Amino acid sequence: MAANDATPKAYIVEHLDPELGPWSELEYLAIARESQAAGAAFCLSSLPAGFRVPEALSAVPAFRAENRGVEELYAADKSRVCLLDPSAAKDLSPEDGDKFDAFLFGGILGDDPPRDRTSELRKKGFEGRRLGPVQMTTDTAVRVTRLVVQGKTPLHDIPYVDFPELKFNEHESTEMPFRYVKDDEGKPIMPEGMVELIRKDSDKAIDDLF
Ligand code: SAM
Q1: In a domain, 99, yes or no
Q2: What InterPro entries would the database entry show (predicted)?
Q3: CA of residue 21 to ligand 1 center, whole Å
Q4: Does the pLDDT value for residue 69 go beyond 80?
Q5: Which of 75, 58, 145 minimizes the C-alpha distance to 106?
Q6: In this structure, are residues 181 and 158 in contact, taking their beta carbons and an 8 Å threshold?
Q7: How far is it, in rounded angstroms, from Cα 86 to Cα 26?
Q8: Is 86 among the domain residues?
């Protein structure tokens, strides 16, 4: 079956980390809620047997947990799936919303410098698209994809903020090595609770030095 504009979109994050850490949990909850609001589905695939899905996530109707991997889920029609790949030769465009109905992302936390773990999905042979040259967090990558394929906004018209500095107080701040979508106040859009989590993690890192 070929995709078209009216086909509901599915955002699939293939789980590649050994466990679901608190950062990923907040990112996935943001993806689930935003997918729900946009009339799309969000699937977390390749979950190990016995994986405990956080309650807040399973409470979102658009969310689906899957033990099967994306290759098995789309065995019948791989051409419907677009892998969002920082190394792809072509950038994502609004027309890709007509070509694909499932958009696949690596379920990995961002790293600096990037370790190209998306290559684990590239090997599976899905057609790839890039979201520009700068690494995004997974929830940002899904947000940007949705704005392009559902909102029909060209990639270069989306407002971004690169490497924002989060200031916790007069003395503490941290620079995030990623690209984010900018909100109306010029601030990076981040999952609910993320700034607080980053602050706690940076306090812990400082405590660990002593
Ligand atoms: N450093 C990571 C790596 O090893 O590939 C990138 C991980 S990124 C936090 C998580 C996912 O978001 C990637 O697997 C990819 O699907 C998507 N992503 C992030 N930035 C992207 C970009 N600029 N272009 C395409 N996809 C991107």
Answers
A1: yes
A2: SFM1-like
A3: 17
A4: yes
A5: 145
A6: yes
A7: 22
A8: yes
> Which residue from 139, 181, 188, 143 is spatially nearest to 164, judged by alpha carbons?
188
Point out which residues pair with 105 in neighbouring strands. 13
CA 159/CA 81 separation, integer angstroms: 26
Judged by average pLDDT, the poorest of 1-5, 9-13, 148-152 is 1-5
- Give the residue numbers spanning the domain of 117: 10-153
Q: What is the mean pLDDT of the chain?
A: 91
Q: Which of 26, 83, 136, 145 to mutate to test the pocket of ligand 1 (most atoms within 8 A of CB)?
A: 136
Q: Name the residue with tokens 């790293």.
A: 111
What is the pTM (predicted TM-score) of this model?
Answer: 0.93
Checking if the pLDDT of 4 tops 60, the result is no
Mutate-to-test residue for ligand 1 from 138, 179, 194, highest number of ligand atoms within 8 A of CB: 138
- CATH code at position 27: 3.40.1280.30
- Whole-number Å distance, alpha carbon 155 to ligand 1 midpoint, is 15
Report how far ligand 1's centroid is from the alpha carbon of 42 (Å). 17
